[in-house]
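Observation: inputs received (chain + FE2/S2 (inorganic) cluster).
Thought: call the complex predictor directly.
Action: predict_structure
Action Input:
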Amino acid sequence: MAHFPKPSEGSWTEHFEIDTEPVSYADSISPEFYEQERDAIFRRTWLNVGRVEQLPRKGSYFTRELDAAGASVIVVRGTDGEVRAFHNVCRHRGNKLVWDDYPREETKGTCRAFTCKYHAWRYDLEGKLAFVQQESEFFGIDKSEYGLLAVQAEVWEGFVFVNLDPENTTPLREYLGRFAHGIEGYPFHKLTQVHKYRAEIGSNWKLFIDAFAEFYHAPILHSGQYTAGEAAKIKKYGYEALSYDIDGPHSMVSSWGGIAPPKEKAMVKPIERALRSGLFGPWDAPDIGMSTEELPPAINPTRSKVWGMDTFVFFPNFMLLIWRPNWVLTYHYWPTSYNTHIFEGTCYFVPPQNAFQRLQQELAAVSFKEYGLQDGNTLEATQTMLESRTVDAFPLCDQEVLLRHLHSTAQSYVRRHQQRRSETPATAS
Ligand code: FES
Ligand SMILES: [Fe+2]
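Observation:
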């Protein structure tokens, strides 16, 4: 029996005019397709690489290793306060400009200029080449021609994005579309207490997005998180979302749950009762300057009384979860090959006022880590069996509508990119 109304077409999938036939996962087990995704998606779309709080002052910087795009970028706040991004490549002989002990590891810090470790060429915070060691040994070098190569960088609601396509003409806000407009005004800047997880996952990047874009699996895969009585109840209930929505390449699911404190306290674990916190966050929601009813319109779009959280999937690899008890979670999926990726989960809370609040937040954060491990483990089991190619068509239910959308979006980006390339006249060599 349906708990929440569906669109007049009878299903979300048909409402969005998405095919209901079984789907192929060929796009998740092919090294060739992954190479095409790197070109068509990761070298062309806006990618979220961090938050402005990571760049608190002039000269603050961090680097990001974007394997899928074949790039390393430096993101820095300039002397004028602007956030900029550059390819992390020295113009002299191509050394990686900013790194610490291990060249492949990301780093961060504050500086007045970037100095190459190899021959000490120095670049200012705006990317201009400021110093060349033994400049007179060069052959009339014009320093203005050897600045760092800029990467497009823009900020939306404190989230810093880069776009590695020098020919990109779509501004970030336009790319992020309707959901982003409808989220604007949420006080992300007040949620500065951060807990971060990072894991190497043995699956295609899209498979992990799949696992967070549906909750059909939650009552089953994560049943160990609940007391036995609660697990049985949840399994019987199953899962239905309040609503789904799609906007171009992006999508969202609005969900019930997470209402704190739970109606039946006997159903939660002793530590959750003691700390008044759990998977859905601390039960005592902090003041963020707006009530649940006053949240921006894209959040809890159906204005449901039982709303618990929304998940926004910003294509390709940035997921934003906004929770009723006034905290936020982000997920990033950074491909490293067709069947591996790095997963990052970041929890954002209002800074705790005392030790008890800190413990409440830490319990929420570790509960998430536990969930994430359960998903990560399962994904490796899925990836290996998909790669066996024993089965090549999989039936997806209506609660898995966003998975169909994600995979068809990735495929259409690849298809369109190939078309563009075949239409571009070959240049004479
Ligand atoms: S490679 Fe950077 S100064 Fe030579
Ligand atoms: Fe899960």
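Thought: report the result.
Final Answer: The pocket of FE2/S2 (inorganic) cluster (ligand 1) is lined by residues 90, 92-93, 95, 116, 118-119, 121 (CB under 6 Å). The mean pLDDT is 94.
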